[in-house]
Amino acid sequence: MGQPEGLERFDSQGKGRGLRATRHFALGELLFTCPAYSYVLTVNERGNHCEYCFTRKEGLSKCGKCKQAFYCNVECQKGDWLMHKLECSSMCSYGEKWSPSETVRITARLLAKQKTQTERSASERFLSVKEFESHLDKLDNEKKELIQNDIAALHHFYSKNLHYSDNATLEFVFAQVNCNGFTIEDEELSHLGSAIFPDVALMNHSCCPNVIVTYKGTTAEVRAVQKINPGEEVFTSYIDLLYPTEDRQDRLLDSYFFTCDCKECATKQKDPAKLEIRKLSDPPSSQSVRDMIKYARNVVEEFRRAKHYKTPSELLEICELSLDKMGSVFEESNVYMLHMMYQAMGICLYTQDWEGALKYGEKIIKPYSKHYPPYSLNVASMWLKLGRLYMGLERKTIGIKSLKKAIAIMEIAHGADHHYIAEVKKELEQ
Fold first, then answer.
1. Which of 100, 111, 92 is nearest to 156 (CA)?
2. What is the rounded average pLDDT for all residues in the chain?
3. Measuring CA to CA, which residue among 42, 38, 35, 4 is closest to residue 20?
4. Of the four listed, 157, 166, 327, 342, which is most buried by Cβ atoms within 10 Å?
């Protein structure tokens, strides 16, 4: 099992280990693929996707015992049994009270795989799971408490089918999963599941990445979104790149325990546009701008929490009120305005208010194209959502244009032969 050609693991100055190119890679070229070491389909997508291969289709067959897992066919069901059996009888016993988090589920599968594994897997050509950083020594009390809650849930839901190590080892493994886990998303960036991709986890972060990670079923694909020369390090992005430098730095420090020193963070070149202030005859003071940024960051966090217990109409009201307040100081292209518009658009899509969703999407797309790097999945997915909304509302000409803009980005990011692109092209033909 050799390593992919044109790449090597190396010690990256100030960043620890990393991945480096040993040859040229062209824009859109596939650098490497990585099958998931362990993965789990999110509960909300059950019945829409196969648990084993993540294929999206109608008429999937359900597990005869728990009636909760769905498969393409007998082959997929057999392929998944080693992992599904960890949950099957437990789901039958607990019924609706079966509620481990996705982190607990993926960790249970990782532990089960490590018990049976005798040699390095095809997912570990550059980096093994055992080498993952845990940053356990850097966790605050709140994060440590969350890990203890996850360990308790693991014992509660998996004790019959999984024999695990002592508490200290479990703490370490959960911390590794929290730092190195990936979320698998579809072409509209809807959450499909969680996975561990060791080789992908080797890549360091940059806010001006030269590769992008997309998914084909349960396999990660890494493609160049800039030309890469021999000797250059391969960088991906760990976070959403919409936000200004201070915000990105806080997110990276909180989740990954480092400070980014990329060109974008050093120059803060995009920050003025991302934090654009309204041009008023009586301009706001620098203190009121700072206060509004603080308010905006708080409302983003509050909304994230509110999603778990408020109704769609209550959530939409939070969006509208915050947009109204921020709009007294911020331009509509300001990233905090865009964030709340994006949340509002999501609620409109959920409640099938297509006109409302379109109204927000039309305001978002132009500034998105400016704030994000070229070939961004966020921009592609927004063009896709807009195109599908236009088509559904019988506005075919503009719908076709939007879908074609999505395809142009996706051909670089996903590769021209990806089934998502074939699906969008089929929509165009119809």
1. 100
2. 95
3. 4
4. 157
Instruction: Provide the pLDDT for residue 159.
Output: 86
CATH domain 40-109+117-195 topology: Annexin V; domain 1 (1.10.220)
Give the residue from 18, 33, 34 showing the smallest Cα distance to 205: 18
Residue range 4-14: mean pLDDT, rounded:
92
CATH 1.25.40.10 matches 270-367: yes
Enumerate the CATH 1.25.40.10 domain ranges in the chain, comma separated: 270-367
DSSP structure class, residue 161: T
Scanning 39-128, the segments in alpha helix (DSSP H) are: 74-94, 102-116
Q: How far apart are CA 419 and CA 417, in angstroms?
A: 6
Domain with CATH 1.10.220.160 in the chain: 40-109+117-195
Contacts of 172-177 with CB under 8 Å at 24 or more apart are: 172/134, 172/136, 173/107, 173/110, 173/111, 174/103, 174/107, 174/147, 174/150, 175/134, 175/135, 175/136, 175/139, 175/147, 176/129, 176/132, 176/133, 176/134, 177/103, 177/106, 177/107, 177/110
Task: For residue 210, give Cα distances in angstroms to 3, 31, 148, 237, 280.
Answer: 20, 11, 37, 9, 39
pLDDT score of 1: 58
The fold of 372-430 is 1.25.40
Closest-CA residue to 185 (of 224, 209, 222, 215):
215
Tokens of residue 148, six digits: 């203890």
- Is 90 exceeded by the pLDDT of residue 340? yes
Cα 154 from Cα 150, distance rounded (Å): 6
Tens digit of each residue's pLDDT (9 = 90 or more) over 254-270: 999 999 999 999 999 99
pTM of whole model > 0.90? yes
Q: Within the chain, which residue ranges are assigned CATH 2.170.270.10? A: 1-36+197-268
Q: Which CATH superfamily is domain 1-36+197-268 in?
A: SET domain (2.170.270.10)
pLDDT (average), residues 80-96 = 94
pLDDT at 220: 98
Residue type, 29: E
Question: Concatenated DSSP letters for 307-352?
Answer: TTTS-HHHHHHHHHHHHHHHTTTB-TTSHHHHHHHHHHHHHHHHTT
Question: Which tokens belong to 121?
Answer: 């897997």
Phi, psi of 423 (to 5 degrees): -65, -40
The residue with tokens 């809650």 is 149
Could you give the CA distance from residue 74 to residue 161 in angstroms, rounded to a whole number? Answer: 23
